[in-house]
Design a protein that fits this description.
Structural class: alpha+beta
Number of strands: 3
Strand order of the largest sheet: 1-2-3
Helix content: 55-70%
Strand content: 5-15%
Number of domains: 2
Largest sheet: 3 strands, mixed
Protein backbone atom coordinates (compact mmCIF):
# COMPACT_ATOMS: atom_id res chain seq x y z
CA UNK A 1 0.00 0.00 0.00
CA UNK A 2 2.82 2.36 0.85
CA UNK A 3 4.55 1.63 -2.45
CA UNK A 4 1.30 2.26 -4.31
CA UNK A 5 0.78 5.63 -2.63
CA UNK A 6 4.40 6.57 -3.23
CA UNK A 7 4.15 5.76 -6.96
CA UNK A 8 0.93 7.76 -7.19
CA UNK A 9 2.60 10.72 -5.48
CA UNK A 10 5.71 10.57 -7.70
CA UNK A 11 3.58 10.38 -10.84
CA UNK A 12 1.49 13.35 -9.72
CA UNK A 13 4.66 15.31 -9.03
CA UNK A 14 6.13 14.44 -12.45
CA UNK A 15 2.89 15.41 -14.18
CA UNK A 16 2.88 18.74 -12.38
CA UNK A 17 6.47 19.49 -13.40
CA UNK A 18 5.79 18.56 -17.04
CA UNK A 19 2.70 20.79 -17.07
CA UNK A 20 4.73 23.70 -15.68
CA UNK A 21 7.40 23.26 -18.36
CA UNK A 22 4.97 22.93 -21.28
CA UNK A 23 4.34 26.00 -23.47
CA UNK A 24 0.93 27.66 -23.25
CA UNK A 25 0.28 28.75 -26.85
CA UNK A 26 -3.06 29.93 -28.25
CA UNK A 27 -6.16 28.37 -26.74
CA UNK A 28 -4.11 26.42 -24.21
CA UNK A 29 -1.96 24.82 -26.92
CA UNK A 30 -0.09 21.68 -26.02
CA UNK A 31 -0.49 22.31 -22.29
CA UNK A 32 -4.14 21.32 -22.56
CA UNK A 33 -3.23 17.98 -24.17
CA UNK A 34 -0.48 17.34 -21.64
CA UNK A 35 -2.97 17.99 -18.81
CA UNK A 36 -5.37 15.47 -20.37
CA UNK A 37 -2.67 12.80 -20.75
CA UNK A 38 -1.33 13.33 -17.24
CA UNK A 39 -4.86 13.06 -15.84
CA UNK A 40 -5.40 9.80 -17.70
CA UNK A 41 -2.06 8.43 -16.42
CA UNK A 42 -2.99 9.34 -12.85
CA UNK A 43 -6.37 7.70 -13.31
CA UNK A 44 -4.79 4.49 -14.60
CA UNK A 45 -2.35 4.33 -11.69
CA UNK A 46 -5.15 5.08 -9.23
CA UNK A 47 -7.28 2.25 -10.69
CA UNK A 48 -4.45 -0.30 -10.89
CA UNK A 49 -5.29 -1.98 -7.53
CA UNK A 50 -8.85 -2.58 -8.72
CA UNK A 51 -7.61 -4.02 -12.01
CA UNK A 52 -5.17 -6.35 -10.26
CA UNK A 53 -7.90 -7.38 -7.81
CA UNK A 54 -10.27 -8.36 -10.62
CA UNK A 55 -7.49 -10.21 -12.51
CA UNK A 56 -6.89 -12.47 -9.51
CA UNK A 57 -10.39 -13.89 -9.84
CA UNK A 58 -11.75 -15.46 -13.00
CA UNK A 59 -14.32 -12.70 -13.32
CA UNK A 60 -15.24 -9.46 -11.56
CA UNK A 61 -18.41 -11.15 -10.30
CA UNK A 62 -16.38 -13.90 -8.63
CA UNK A 63 -14.06 -11.30 -7.11
CA UNK A 64 -17.03 -9.43 -5.68
CA UNK A 65 -18.54 -12.68 -4.42
CA UNK A 66 -15.32 -13.72 -2.66
CA UNK A 67 -14.95 -10.26 -1.12
CA UNK A 68 -18.54 -10.47 0.11
CA UNK A 69 -17.91 -13.94 1.57
CA UNK A 70 -14.83 -12.63 3.39
CA UNK A 71 -16.81 -9.72 4.76
CA UNK A 72 -19.63 -12.00 5.95
CA UNK A 73 -17.15 -14.32 7.68
CA UNK A 74 -15.48 -11.39 9.38
CA UNK A 75 -18.80 -9.88 10.42
CA UNK A 76 -19.94 -13.16 11.96
CA UNK A 77 -16.86 -13.10 14.17
CA UNK A 78 -17.40 -9.48 15.16
CA UNK A 79 -21.19 -9.72 15.14
CA UNK A 80 -21.46 -9.95 18.91
CA UNK A 81 -19.23 -6.93 19.38
CA UNK A 82 -21.30 -5.02 16.81
CA UNK A 83 -24.54 -6.00 18.54
CA UNK A 84 -23.16 -4.90 21.90
CA UNK A 85 -21.96 -1.58 20.46
CA UNK A 86 -25.36 -1.07 18.78
CA UNK A 87 -27.16 -1.60 22.09
CA UNK A 88 -24.84 0.87 23.84
CA UNK A 89 -25.40 3.48 21.14
CA UNK A 90 -29.17 3.05 21.19
CA UNK A 91 -29.16 3.29 24.99
CA UNK A 92 -27.19 6.55 24.77
CA UNK A 93 -29.64 7.92 22.21
CA UNK A 94 -32.57 6.92 24.41
CA UNK A 95 -30.91 8.60 27.41
CA UNK A 96 -30.28 11.82 25.51
CA UNK A 97 -33.90 11.93 24.31
CA UNK A 98 -35.14 11.24 27.83
CA UNK A 99 -32.83 13.96 29.18
CA UNK A 100 -34.27 16.43 26.65
CA UNK A 101 -37.78 15.48 27.71
CA UNK A 102 -36.99 15.94 31.41
CA UNK A 103 -35.35 19.29 30.65
CA UNK A 104 -38.42 20.45 28.70
CA UNK A 105 -40.69 19.35 31.54
CA UNK A 106 -38.69 21.31 34.13
CA UNK A 107 -38.30 24.34 31.85
CA UNK A 108 -42.04 24.44 31.28
CA UNK A 109 -42.98 23.91 34.94
CA UNK A 110 -40.60 26.57 36.27
CA UNK A 111 -40.76 28.92 33.24
CA UNK A 112 -37.06 28.61 32.44
CA UNK A 113 -35.21 29.29 29.20
CA UNK A 114 -33.87 26.22 27.43
CA UNK A 115 -30.33 27.61 27.56
CA UNK A 116 -30.49 27.91 31.37
CA UNK A 117 -31.09 24.23 32.14
CA UNK A 118 -28.96 21.19 31.21
CA UNK A 119 -30.03 17.69 32.21
CA UNK A 120 -28.10 14.43 32.22
CA UNK A 121 -29.39 11.05 33.33
CA UNK A 122 -27.56 8.22 35.09
CA UNK A 123 -28.73 4.62 34.85
CA UNK A 124 -27.76 1.39 36.57
CA UNK A 125 -26.55 -0.18 33.30
CA UNK A 126 -29.80 -2.08 32.74
CA UNK A 127 -31.84 0.91 31.64
CA UNK A 128 -33.19 1.71 35.12
CA UNK A 129 -32.99 5.43 35.88
CA UNK A 130 -30.95 6.10 39.04
CA UNK A 131 -30.36 9.83 39.09
CA UNK A 132 -31.17 13.06 37.30
CA UNK A 133 -28.34 15.61 37.29
CA UNK A 134 -29.23 19.20 36.48
CA UNK A 135 -26.97 22.14 35.80
CA UNK A 136 -28.65 25.51 36.15
CA UNK A 137 -27.33 28.79 34.80
CA UNK A 138 -28.59 32.26 33.99
CA UNK A 139 -31.99 33.09 35.44
CA UNK A 140 -32.53 29.46 36.48
CA UNK A 141 -30.12 29.78 39.41
CA UNK A 142 -32.83 31.68 41.32
CA UNK A 143 -35.23 28.71 41.23
CA UNK A 144 -35.38 26.75 44.49
CA UNK A 145 -33.36 23.56 43.99
CA UNK A 146 -35.51 21.77 46.60
CA UNK A 147 -38.62 22.31 44.47
CA UNK A 148 -36.88 20.87 41.41
CA UNK A 149 -35.63 17.86 43.35
CA UNK A 150 -39.08 17.23 44.85
CA UNK A 151 -40.74 17.45 41.44
CA UNK A 152 -38.22 15.02 39.88
CA UNK A 153 -38.58 12.55 42.76
CA UNK A 154 -42.38 12.61 42.52
CA UNK A 155 -42.48 12.46 38.72
CA UNK A 156 -39.64 10.05 37.93
CA UNK A 157 -39.10 8.30 41.26
CA UNK A 158 -35.33 8.79 41.36
CA UNK A 159 -32.76 11.01 43.03
CA UNK A 160 -32.03 14.46 41.67
CA UNK A 161 -28.85 16.50 42.01
CA UNK A 162 -28.91 20.20 41.11
CA UNK A 163 -25.73 22.11 40.28
CA UNK A 164 -25.30 25.82 39.67
CA UNK A 165 -22.93 26.83 36.90
Amino acid sequence: MRQYLMSLFVLALCCAVIELLSPEGEGGGIARHIRLLSGLCLLLVALSPIVSWTEQAASPLEALSSALDDWIAQSEVSGDAFKERWEQQSEQIDLSLAAETVAEMIEEHFSLAASDCRVSLKTDGHGQLNEVCMALSGRAIWVDAQQIQTMVRKTLGCACTVYIE
